[in-house]
Structure formats: C-alpha cells, structure tokens
Specification:
The protein has 232 residues and is an alpha/beta fold. It is built from 8 helices and 10 strands. Helix 1 packs across helix 2.
Length: 232
C-alpha cells in the first residue's frame, strides 16, 4: 500500500509518499502564497524520488486543517482531484495532530498550536499513549491569552509545538513549566501525514473524496469581512 500525502494548511507546502516501509520521499517549501503553483511539481518530484508511477498510489491523504483558508482549500482540492483521478479512497488528518505527532515520545503534556492570524491561535492538547498520542478534548481557536490560561489550568509540565507557540512565546513563557519545541517542528509535516494515514489505512478508516470535510474552526476572513460590512 502506497500513500500520497498532501499538506498545505499553513505557509509551508509539502507532500510525501510512503507505506509499510516508511516514508519513501518527501519535500517541503515555503514561498508566500504560491501553494497552487507548487503542489503539482512537488507531487511529481516525490513520485520520481520514490521511483513509482502515480497508478501505484492506493490512498491519498490530506491535511484537513485548521489552517490558513486559501492554502487549505488548495491542498484539499488537489488531493480530492488526485483521488478521483486515481480512483482511490482518502484519509484526512488534522493539522494539530500532525504538529503534535513528531514530539509523541515526550512524557510531558503536549500543546499543539498554529498561528491563526488576527491575533489568534488554533490549539489542542495531547498526551503520549502506547503507539503514539491521544488528543485531549476538542480543537479550538482563541487568543494566545486564552490558550495560555487553559494550559496553566492543566497544572503540569508541558511541551508546546507549532508556529503559534513560537510567535507568542512571551505569552506562553509566563508559565515556567512550559518548554517550546524547536523551529524545525513549527509546521505540519507531510511525512507525519503519511505515517498517521498509514496507521488509519491499516484500520481501513477511509473516506470517499465527496465525503471529505475540512476543519475550519472559524469562518474564512473574506466571509467575516463581508458579514461585518453587511452589519454596517
């Protein structure tokens, strides 16, 4: 079973291919808002690096968000088109799960955070469990102060990971039990997407392309601005 993973929910765009042998090839880059222009060449690049043809792909996995609306839409649309074209099922994984996954070996409480713009962050809490991590409660969007307050209420040593923690480090550092992960772990990883998707594929947790639901947590900026204009 070979899985193509597509990730574009943040400033970074990435894709990877892997299966039971692990991740065979992956690539990531960040060039402003050029998600649509970059994804197709990246997919072709990882395909060549993995030395496979597209018709060998049996599952397409995609980051469902939350994230930046335009990039998220590009990634999901591309992934759905690939799945339709190849006639294969899909698996969706959330951005915060992908951010938390690389630090799954810590014994500390994990808080995954992503910059949501407009002075807010997307965030969720996780704990290590045998074989990986488990999300504790729902994914949320709020101010860094709200997230820091919830973190403090947990009352335990914590490892914060994601670009939201880095951007608002001063706010989160007020709790001395808090450690912030390195910059290299700031964004969701396409390699992590393939790894998590493979575990779900073994459990046959597939969805059809038309049933795939993105996770927004809030309205897109353009829709919010339109609603505000309508209220004036």
């Amino acid at each position: 079973m070979l899985i193509l993973g597509v990730e574009s929910a943040t400033n970074q765009v990435g894709c990877a291919i892997g299966g039971h042998e692990g991740v065979l090839a992956s690539t990531h880059s960040a060039r402003g808002k050029q998600h649509a222009e970059m994804l197709a060449p990246q997919i072709d690049f990882v395909r060549k690096q993995a030395r496979i043809s597209l018709d060998e792909i049996s599952v397409v996995a995609v980051d469902l968000g939350p994230g930046l609306y335009t990039g998220l839409r590009v990634g999901i649309t591309t992934a759905i088109s690939m799945a339709f074209g190849l006639g294969v099922p899909m698996i969706g994984v959330t951005s915060l799960d992908l951010v938390a996954f690389p630090v799954r070996f810590t014994s500390k409480l994990i808080m995954a955070t992503l910059d949501a713009r407009r002075g807010e962050v997307f965030y969720a809490f996780y704990r290590q469990v045998p074989g990986g991590i488990q999300r504790l409660g729902e994914q949320k969007v709020g101010t860094p102060e709200q997230a820091a307050s919830e973190l403090q209420a947990q009352g335990s040593d914590a490892l914060l990971v994601g670009d939201g923690a880095i951007k608002y480090e001063a706010t989160f550092r007020q709790d001395r039990r808090t450690e912030i992960a390195e910059q290299g772990l700031a964004y969701p990883s396409a390699a992590s997407l393939v790894q998590l998707a493979h575990a779900q594929a073994l459990r046959e947790e597939f969805v059809q392309p038309w049933d795939l639901k993105p996770v927004y947590l809030r309205l897109p900026d353009a829709e919010i601005n339109w609603n505000v204009r309508g209220d004036q």
